[in-house]
Amino acid sequence: MDATALAPHPPPSSHTRPSQAPSSQDPPRSGPRLGLGRFETLKRRAAGTPGLVSFAGGLPAPGEFPRTKLAASFVRALQTPSCPALQYGWPEGDEDLRSWIAGQLRRRGASVAADDVIVTSGAQQAVSLAAQMLRGPGARIGVDPESYPGALELFQALGATVVDDGRHVDAHYLMPAVSNPRGRRMSPRERAKVLSTLRPIIEDDAYADLCFDGPAPRPLLAEAPDRVFHVGTFSKTLCPGLRVGWLVPPRALRSDVLKLKQAADLQAASLPQAILEDYLRNEDFDQRLVRLREFYARRAARMEQALRRYLPGWRLEPPAGGFAIWVEPDAEPNEAFFLAAAIEHGVAFDPGSLFRANGAVTPFALRLCFSSVERDEDLDEGIRRLARCWAEVA
Amino acid sequence: MDATALAPHPPPSSHTRPSQAPSSQDPPRSGPRLGLGRFETLKRRAAGTPGLVSFAGGLPAPGEFPRTKLAASFVRALQTPSCPALQYGWPEGDEDLRSWIAGQLRRRGASVAADDVIVTSGAQQAVSLAAQMLRGPGARIGVDPESYPGALELFQALGATVVDDGRHVDAHYLMPAVSNPRGRRMSPRERAKVLSTLRPIIEDDAYADLCFDGPAPRPLLAEAPDRVFHVGTFSKTLCPGLRVGWLVPPRALRSDVLKLKQAADLQAASLPQAILEDYLRNEDFDQRLVRLREFYARRAARMEQALRRYLPGWRLEPPAGGFAIWVEPDAEPNEAFFLAAAIEHGVAFDPGSLFRANGAVTPFALRLCFSSVERDEDLDEGIRRLARCWAEVA
């Protein structure tokens, strides 16, 4: 195995929490917590470690980036006479791109027009705009016990209270199609329950197109368009480097959201939008999604197999889609120590505490991303390294 | 004159205010105010009017976009094995790009290292991050009587009080090298005065590289790095479609700013950063700046000449740099009515009230951008149309 093949991918900025202030009043449930400053250090050390197998970061597979086609789209986009690709654009984003996004959502059962869509600087900004529209600081936002760190961090930064234990909330943040980090699909009963509360919902659909069993399911947006903020992105299905996502806010709030968006950064970058618009017009995106679903499903199965073989005591639930497997080992070592030891063994992961609003290290858990290793074989090798490390530490 | 040559450029999202809530308690100083909803309508109508000469929007000249070179940079950036151009990156931005930015600032006398620089989603986000670091809602931010609408709108959205009359403030927002909309350079005395207040300063240097008399001057950052938030961008000197700017915050606040940045949108888009980094490594940017300064200075002079010829009663101060001339006509018609009439005559501009914190329409003023018309001759034609309209209306 050569070092280049295993060279770490670029830094995991997607699904890792940059800071650490626990939101809820409760202290971490038990055990010493991995400080995020410390995690940041480890993360950067991992990125600089040659030969490392990284299961961290929630990054898509770089081998699946359609480089040549994007380059062709770029060249075509530059040929338009007034060159809108390089100029300022409208704050709501490119019209053709918004039409395409609306069309995708209509196919899934939601009643969405191009004018309902706001193109954002990635899904993170879409979640940020939605959260800012919820009732001011002090709003109580309900999340799963494990949730997307970027959202947790954001809600806390906005002064909201993150509630992960089912107590009363003012709004929900959910990933109904494929959750992060657990890769779960919400059951019909759970959907019905959350809809019955009549509260605003931020529906983060980042991984919805990567359900292993087929096309993205009907979004919550279709059931309650007047109180669902629907969030999507091209970062998982095409590439994160374009930094293009979208928000479909309730219609009554659209103009307020647009003002917030404009104050934040005027508009999403024109160039990536122009590339995307051209790419989507010329390529069969459905076909791409079919291939990606097969690709990631195969990787998930292989990682699961390796885990069952080398770490048979670890609990896991096979994911319904997405990039990762959430595992709960059979012992409770110090999280920071175990991550540092794993990096020494040449493998990295995202520690479970990152995904918890209060940073709890218990129950001890890891998110293992199968998405971005260079080759399928790296999945086996990475899990073997993890198992060797576990045998020494736990 | 063919219609295509004069076809309106893409929409002016750069320097126009999306909403209207006046910030200070005072009502508009006099006269009926151009509602921003109304302005939005007119702006979009203008964008759809064939043959229009647009002096609105603060857009750079599309003819000066280095299309071929950017395409070459894109293709090169895609050839890197792990393709960081299309992947997630670090929240602070590309290291080589930050080094380049720091180098530029050092040449201007500021002591800046690559690690001091945070790459942002345009200058607007840099101003937004800086403003969020100022003492909470209710902070009083001092601005010029006419200032950048995107900043005014933002400060108001954040709950700050915008102060434009020299009363006590908690912080300053300034464009010392070239102001927008007036195109003024701060005098040494003004610099000394604002520095002597010892208050935080947001230094928006968007146009600093486009001073007609030579390289960008020494920034305020060089004098007070511990309380200046320095803001820059490639939107005016290269192209806005990349949406890449930067913020140099005081060192003590860097990690807090970075957390805010990450919560807002994780990171600036990787692709535009990779293109830029390659472009700057391979091109002589100083040479480009010399040419751009000559280009815009020539346009400024030509517009000034046309104004003095066709509208000799209008007051103007020749700009020291940038994209626009601020004019104060010799009568006070209804602003909204005059803009609508001008569009009927085939010419558009940014109404003066947009640049005032309280939306005052008096003294009646216009910002006329000479930057983005297709050909130099369009400057004469646009001013002739404006003069014809003025003769009918005023």
Relevant terms:
homodimer, 394 residues, 7-stranded mixed sheet, 4-stranded antiparallel sheet, 11 helices, globular, disordered N terminus
Report on the structure:
Two copies of one chain form a homodimer. By secondary structure, chain A is an alpha/beta fold. In chain A, strands 2-8-7-6-5-3-4 form a seven-stranded mixed β-sheet, with helices on both faces. A four-stranded antiparallel β-sheet of chain A has the order 9-10-13-12, with helices on one face. The longest helix of chain A has 26 residues. Chain A starts with 35 loop residues before the first helix and ends with a helix. At the A-B interface, helix 2, helix 4, helix 5, helix 7 and helix 8 of A face helix 3, helix 5, helix 6, helix 8 and helix 9 of B.
List the helices and strands and how they pair.
The structure is a homodimer of 394-residue chains.
Chain A: H1 36-47, E1 53-54, H2 67-77, H3 95-107, E2 118-120, H4 122-133, E3 140-142, H5 149-157, E4 161-163, E5 171-174, H6 188-196, E6 201-204, E7 228-233, E8 245-248, H7 254-265, H8 270-282, H9 285-310, E9 315-316, E10 324-328, H10 335-344, E11 347-348, E12 350-351, E13 366-369, H11 376-393
Helix pairs in contact in A: 1-10, 2-8, 4-5, 4-7, 9-11
Quick recap:
Two copies of one chain form a homodimer. Chain A is of the alpha/beta class and 394 residues long.
